[in-house]
Structures are given as structure tokens and as C-alpha cells.
Amino acid sequence: MPTAPVAAPAPAPAADTRADDDNFLLLREAARKNDAAGTNALASRLPPTYPLASYVDYYRLKPRIRDASAEEIREALRRHEGTAAAELLRSEWLLEMGRRRDWAGFEREVGQLAGSNLQLRCYALLARASRGEAVAQEARGLLLDPEYYGEACAALIAQLVQDRQFSEDDLRWQLRLAGEADATGPARRAAALLGASDTRAAQAVDAPAVAMARGIGKTPAERAIYLVAIGRMARTSLKVATVALEKNSPQLSAEERAIGWASIAHAASIKLEPEAYTWWQRANGIRLTGEQLQWKTRIALRRGDWKAVRATIEAMPPNLRADSAWVYWLARADKHEGRTAEANAAFERIASPHNFYGQLALDELGRQVVAPPPAAAISADELAQAGANPSLQRALKFYALRLRAEGNREWNWGLRGMSDRQLLAAGELARRNDLLDRTVETSLRTRTELDYAQRFPAPHLDVLHPTAQGLGLDKAWVYGLIRQESRFISDARSGVGASGLMQVMPATGKWVAAKIGMDNFVHGMLNDLRTNITLGANYMNMVLENFDGDEILATAAYNAGPSRARAWRGVLDQPMEGAVFVESIPFSETRGYVRNVLANATNYAAVFENKPQSIRTRVRPVQPRERTSILP
Questions:
Q1: Nearest by Cα to 583 from 341, 312, 342, 315
Q2: Cα–Cα distance, 205 to 500 (Å, whole number)
Q3: What is the pLDDT of residues 132-191, one digit of tens each?
Q4: How far apart are CA 359 and CA 448, in angstroms?
Q5: pTM of the prediction?
Q6: How far apart (Å, rounded) are the C-alpha atoms in residues 242 and 278?
Q7: Residue 606: pLDDT above 90?
Q8: Residue 512, class by beta-carbon neighbours within 10 Å (0-12 exposed, 13-18 middle, 19+ buried)?
């Protein structure tokens, strides 16, 4: 990728520049390995004028964060004040001060950083608790995701137990959360604080059959561990879990039985089992986790039980209830109950052309998605100002080194506090440097001045249009999918091996190539833009035909595989509202994917057709019928 921040071609890098870049990459790797001697030696080879000098200091100090003097760290922070690298260094230093329980230093340096990092927030509460402050209520609102607790949040829980700010009920709640999140370490720690066996708690998470075979136990803590095992077993075998819970119910309290049924209902909901609705009713009256509340709501939606939909959404914590999905479905419950004014007020709060539920809300209000008029062109001065932004310059350097994650961090740092016009100028800068993903993400931050040419770009139209037209495919849907799959990064590669603009898997590419008579196909061809579009568009057409033209099912199949989409459809015995089907897709990734693709496609159609669009033309009732599959 070009490194120049303007459209003019960059000069060829000099030999010493290439050597500096090589040394920087070695420095980064040495820091990753915590090689203090190596980072010090490599950092000394790089000149103070190196474009990424702030990261040179960061990588040099990171392996020595435990031993470096406070003055040395402060000097680096002063030298690079206001940069993303300084924030990274300060975060590392704060975590080290938290581990050392240096609360005076921690609170002197933390500033606004405590709000952006779970571990730092836990240390901030721990610092206050160490002075005798009551922080339990704040901690309960924070400690909801054991997978990311680390030492900081584990220490906070232990301190709150020691100070008697956390009760056994709090610890049993943490044990439930750990079991749900498959977080063995936090489960061990919660059990130990309860005075129970941490080994048995680990077995409940990792080997539930073994834990269940040990018996239900005699103490509330042991029974809590047993219920974790029931919930984990339900993910594998609902039958084994339900039989065990029913057998041991006489030895459980009413609350414990309800907790067990909630875990079973949760697992059954994810599997779209019909018994889930009944099992949720057996869990009435207890506190549910955030995930359980959401799945209970989804099952109520599938049953058309609007009373339960309302009750469960209203039981959600405020941050979850404010999500546009649950604002929308609560408004739908209002509408079902004849509370039209309340429903319309809620729809108005989230109505927006920019996302799935915003578009559905627009539809409920009788409005459609309309592409705004083109934004005023970016001037040369505006573009030059963007190109002179130091953070954006560092980001472009990272992209040139093929360090996309670091580039994205720097790019996002540089966008802070920008006006709409400055954001659009930065988006144009990204476009001129062939970084369409940054163009899209940057333009999405504008508040009043919307540029759909940036938000919904349509590159490679000379290749995609004839391909889509020849297959009879809606190019708005194709572009909506590409925007979600790769954000137009032509050399994108996923962790599972999908490649290119349309993120085609090698096995899928080979299968589609054979179907369309592309005899010379080899995996490397997936990186060729024309081949990638040809194979991806043909596969989209195949899944669309296989699912009777249903864009919901075809989009889900493209992401999760046709067999899963067939299975989700296969449990239907009557047509289901499309939005309900989408909301109850078992995989969270696929659920979000389908939402985004369909919302994207609606916006692209507004641009391509130059007329208002309704997402309802794509979110139609999903039918249970399916013809014989031709897909793997």
C-alpha cells in the first residue's frame, strides 16, 4: 500500500529507510516476546526521526515495565504526550502499579483511562476499597464477563469478600456467570472463596459429566457447583441434564431448581428446541443473566407471547434494555397491546437508516430509507489538513508495513474530536490510499453531514455489475454482503482461511469452480479480485436459489453454512416473521451478520435505484418449506 498521505505517488524508499523498517519489525517482535535486551539493542538502531518513534519507546519499555524507573516512564510519556502509543504505555504502567498495589501512583496517573479498560476499572475500585470505601454496588454492575477478569477483577472480588462487601449470594452469582462463559479460572476462584472445592468447580465447567457423577453435595456452594455442571451438560445433552435435575430436585431449594431450569432453558433456546418455552416458565422468579434474559425474550418472540416479551425486556439491566433491538421489540409489544403513542415514541428514538432495527423502526413509522444528497466535495486544503495529521500519518506507515491492527488503532486515535468535515476529509484520504475499510469506518462517525459515497462505496463495479447481472442477482445485496465480509479489503484473510473481498473459503471456492466449469482453479486464485467476485457471486446465487429466494436464509447460509441455515429453518412448522427469525438465529456472529448485510443492502438499493427503500422487501416471513438441497 502507498505510504504517502496524499494522492501524489510516493518516492521509492531509500535503503536506510528499508533497514529502519526491518529493525522496527524486529523490535516489535522482541517486545512481543518480552525480550528486554533485544528491544533495547534494536531501539538504539532507530533514529529519533523515525516516523513511529513513539512506538519505538513503547516497545523498548514494555518488557521492562516492572523494572523501569517512574521517571524513565514519565519522560517517555512526556515526550509522546497525546499519542496512542503514550496511552498504551500508560495502560501497561497502570496495570503494573495495580499488580504491585501502588495505589498512590495508580490514582495519580489513571485519569480517564480507567473508563476504557475492564482491568483498570477493577483496579480503580480495588484502590477505593483498600481505603474502606463501599464499592460493592459499582462492582456488581462491572463484574459481568468473567472471561476478561484477569488478576485485577479477581483481586477485587477477593477484597470485597474479605471486607464483607460481597456475600455468598454474590459469589454464587459469579460462579453462575463463570459457568455460562466457560471460564474455568474464575469458577475456581469463586468456589474457593465460597469454601468449596476449586477442583470440582473446574470439573463442572470442563468435564460436567464427572462433576455430576460426584453427586449434588451437601452445602449451598456444592449445590451451586452442581448446577453449573447441569448447565454445561445441557449444552451437550439436554436429556442427560433434564433427567439429572429432575432426579435431584427434592434435594434442591425452589430457587436452586429454578436456576437449574434457567440453565437448561438457555441451552435449549440456543438449540431452538420447542421445550425451551416451558422450561423458561419453570425458571420464573429468579435473577437471570444478561444472555439468559435475551434468549428468554427470543423464545417468547418465536411463540408470539408479547406479555412475556414485555416482562423479560423490562427485567433487563438499563444498558441492555437500551440496545436498539430491545427498544424495538418492547415497542412492538406496546403496539400489540394498543399502546400506539408509547410504541411510536420508542420507534422514533431508534429510527435510522444506518442499522437493521433503525430501518425496521422507520418502517413502523411509515417512512423509508432515502439516500441523502451528495456531500460537498473535499477541498484541497481539507485533504492537506487530514494528510498532515500525525496520527493518520503513523497509521499510513503501519499499513505500509502490513500491520493493520496497529494502523487501525492509530487511525481511530487520530479521528478523536474531529468535525464532520474533518472526518469526511480523513475518509477521502483513506480512499486515496486504497483503504476503503477506513473510509467506511471514518464516514460512519459523522453526525449530520452524511456522505453515502463514503459509507456505501461501490468499487470494482466494472467486474461486479456484469457478474451480478448475468446471474440475475441484486447487486445491492452483493455489495451489502461484501461491505460486511471484508469492508472492501481485497487481500482480507480470516482466521479460518476465507479470502478476498467476498471471503470465500478454499473448499467452497473449489466446489463452486467445479460447478461453473472453472477447470483451472487453484486456491491461490481466491486472491485474484475477478476470480473472487466470480466465485463469491455464483455461490450467493446458489444459496439464494436453494433457499427459494429468501435473502435472510441465503445470507445466514453464506456466513454459517447451508446446513445450519437448513437446520434453523427446519424447526419451523409455520411461517415466521422475518425479523423474529433473524433475532433468534443461534449464532451471535451470524445474527449480527444477517442484520448488517440486509441493512447495507437496503442502503445500497437506495443509492443504486435513487428512490426510497423499505427493509421489509428483504425481511419477509421465513417459510418452513424447503426443496431438495444442492449445496454441501
A1: 312
A2: 38
A3: 999 999 999 999 999 999 999 999 999 999 999 999 999 999 999 999 999 999 999 999
A4: 18
A5: 0.93
A6: 13
A7: yes
A8: buried
Strands (E), 386-436: none
CB atoms within 10 A of CB 420: 16
Phi first, then psi, for residue 613 (nearest 5°) are -130, 150
**Which cell numbers in the block locate residue 210?**
464427572
Domains and CATH numbers, the chain: 167-304 (no CATH), 461-617 (1.10.530.10)
CA separation (Å) from 22 to 10, 18, 409?
A: 19, 6, 21
Q: How far apart are CA 554 and CA 550, in angstroms?
A: 6
Which residue reads 413509522 in cell numbers? 365
Report residue 515 CA to chain centroid gap. 34
- Grid coordinates representing 557 are 447460509
Cα–Cα dist 144/222, whole Å: 22
Taking only the tens place, the pLDDT of each residue in 7-39 is 434 444 556 789 999 999 999 999 999 999 999
Closest CA to 230 of 269, 256, 250: 256
Q: Where are the alpha helices (DSSP H) in 273-400?
A: 276-282, 290-303, 306-314, 318-321, 324-336, 340-350, 356-364, 380-387, 390-400
**∠ CA 49-54-56 to the nearest 5 degrees?**
80
